[in-house]
Amino acid sequence: MVRASVLALAIIAFAGSSGWPGEAAAKPQATSGRRLSAIELVAEEERWVYRPSVGRPDFMIDREAEILARVERTQRLEERRRQGSAARDPSGKPESSDDRERLLAWGRGEDERVREALIQGRYEEAMRIADAAIKQLEPQISHAGVAAIIVSLRTYRTQAEEAKIREDAQAAFEALKIRVLGILWSQDGVRLAIVDGEQRALAVNDRVKDCVILHIDQDRVDFRFVYQRRRFEFPVYVDLTTRPLAQQR
């Protein structure tokens, strides 16, 4: 008890002489001019609250938690900014329901144009229209209707690209000018093809101008042709202007 009293008196003396850091003269007041007892001094000590002065950093702050909070706040602001950008058209104006309907109508029209060009064999035009439409629609891909149109455009675009590659491959194959003059047909035996420029009749797996014979039928020969590292199969029919349809043996 004596030690507690001495400690309390020392604290009061220090507070009275210099004051607590950052605290404005918060001294315990005696009642009716009498000195406080040791128990009253301890009670006054327990009621004391630390208040840092202005501009003085609090070293008890968790700096790691503070940095994480700042990062989280920055991420939230960035997410809000992205959401705001997604809800705007390329001109930067807020998107209205009428603008969205016009965009959907335009996208459906472009999708129909691509489909018609693909059906009519205008593959390069179909790819060009699809690329331009997708570029305009992608900023609004978050909307379900726009996303469906983009999927359709990409599907047509892929089909047009595949068809264009096959068309180019067939043109390159035809440029080889392979002519089948006749077929030595056998129902059960080996079937042979007479090809212009070859010294002998050719069977399956033989090569003609780097093209492999895959199949020999009564009126045609199927060749495998490699174009841009892709394999294609093209038939060559018997040239009826120089040889009969088939020769039996």
Give a brief outline of the structure.
With 249 residues, this protein is α+β, with helices and mostly antiparallel strands. The protein has helices spanning 2-17, 38-47, 63-86, 97-119, 123-137, 144-174; strands spanning 180-185, 192-195, 207-208, 211-216, 220-227, 230-237, 247-248. The strands form two sheets. Strands 3-4-5-6 form a four-stranded antiparallel sheet. Strands 2-1-7 form a three-stranded mixed sheet, with no helix packed on it.
Structure notes:
This protein is of the alpha+beta class and 249 residues long. The protein contains 6 helices and 7 strands. It is elongated and about 135 Å long. It starts with a helix and ends with a strand.
Reconstruct the topology from this structure.
Blueprint: H1 2-17, H2 38-47, H3 63-86, H4 97-119, H5 123-137, H6 144-174, E1 180-185, E2 192-195, E3 207-208, E4 211-216, E5 220-227, E6 230-237, E7 247-248
Parallel strand pairs: 1-7
Antiparallel strand pairs: 1-2, 3-4, 4-5, 5-6
Helix pairs in contact: 1-2, 4-5, 4-6, 5-6
- Multimeric state: single chain
Helix and strand content put the structural class at: alpha+beta
Could you spell the SSE succession in H and E letters? HHHHHHEEEEEEE
Our measurement of the CA-to-CA distance between the termini, rounded to an integer number of angstroms, reads 130 Å
Structure annotation, total helices: 6
Instruction: Write down the overall mean pLDDT.
Output: 77
Main sheet characteristics? 4 strands, antiparallel
Principal-axes geometry comes out as elongated
Approximate strand percentage: 5-15%
**Gyration radius from CA atoms, angstroms:** 45 Å
Placed side by side, the strands forming the largest sheet appear as 3-4-5-6
Range of helix content: 40-55%
Q: Could you tell me the number of beta strands?
A: 7
Low-confidence stretches: 14-26, 89-94, 243-249
